Amino acid sequence: MKDVARLAGVSTSTVSHVINNNRFVSDGVRKKVNDAIAELNYAPSALARSLKMNRTNTIGMLVTTSNNPFYAEVVRGVERSCYERGYSLILCNTEGDHKRMNSSLETLLQKRVDGLLLMCTEIKGPSAEVFSRYPRLPMVMMDWSPFAFGGDVIQDNSFLGGEIATNHLIENGFTRIACIAGPLDKSPAKSRLDGFYRAMAQAGLDVPPEYVLESDFEFSGGFSAMNQLLSLPLPPQAVFAGNDAMAVGAYQAIWQKGLRIPQDIAVVGYDDIDLAAFLTPPLTTIHQPKDELGKLAVDKLLRRMDDADAPSDLLVLTPALINRGSVICR
């Protein structure tokens, strides 16, 4: 910057004003500075600027690697919101590995990210020792948190979503309804199953133990669970899958058995991933506002960065049924 100022015959503060466009500089002086910048091939140092401003304009995000498109769609919303607000996003995958989770978290913190978004589904949370060295780092947890960290949490009302999905099947005349649940050590999966049980109980319908299977929120898990249900002496008439990825797996199992959706068996999913509308038939599912989730998370994190001592918030998003073609509506 001093070299640019020397070549242009101006002060370093004038060079700064031209680069940042934050104060009036005459056209003649601005041209001298820009010509000097071009001649010297100068580019502002983000590192130097971050040291001076004590802010890097970067946000870190820790996310679980998964074949489930839900995570990719949420990350897309987060990245878009970061871009619109002038921030860069550094994304780290945990690969489902606790050691890698701590390593990735340490990497983000060493890069001095201004805030941290967490969307990891591991049972064991990051090392408390890592967080102890960055006690005032603003954080927002998205969807589910396996640990207490003192930040904000944004999640959907999974209990209500499970209830809505099951009631849709009940209202259309189905009585033998099964549920392919996600991992029950994770609160969204358990809450969706609890919503299923609540709707069935209120309708006075029995749930045989073999009609409820715990799976993994992945395509293959839905495929395996659906095959188990179809092998029962009295298979269900309808299935509520705890997420769309498992519903896609269930579709494949049903197709391989030579059965038809919705004529032979009805299916309801959860998440409303982009793929859901392009299945055959299109999947009836519970919509999670993924773009809104990403936007809210970034906005909440930026507010916490400005006020680190604000009380922690829990924001709950309301799910809604998207009625498509995988359930015969009577």
From TrEMBL:
Q: Which Pfam families match?
A: LacI, Peripla_BP_3
* Domain of life per record: Bacteria
Q: Which GO terms describe its molecular function?
A: DNA-binding transcription factor activity; transcription cis-regulatory region binding
InterPro entries per the UniProt record, alphabetical = HTH_LacI, LacI/GalR-like_sensor, Lambda_DNA-bd_dom_sf, Peripla_BP_I, PurR_sensor_dom
Tell me which residues make up the HTH lacI-type domain. 1-53
Keyword terms, alphabetized? DNA-binding, Repressor, Transcription, Transcription regulation
Report the protein name in the record: Ribose operon repressor
Q: Which organism is it from?
A: Morganella morganii subsp. morganii KT
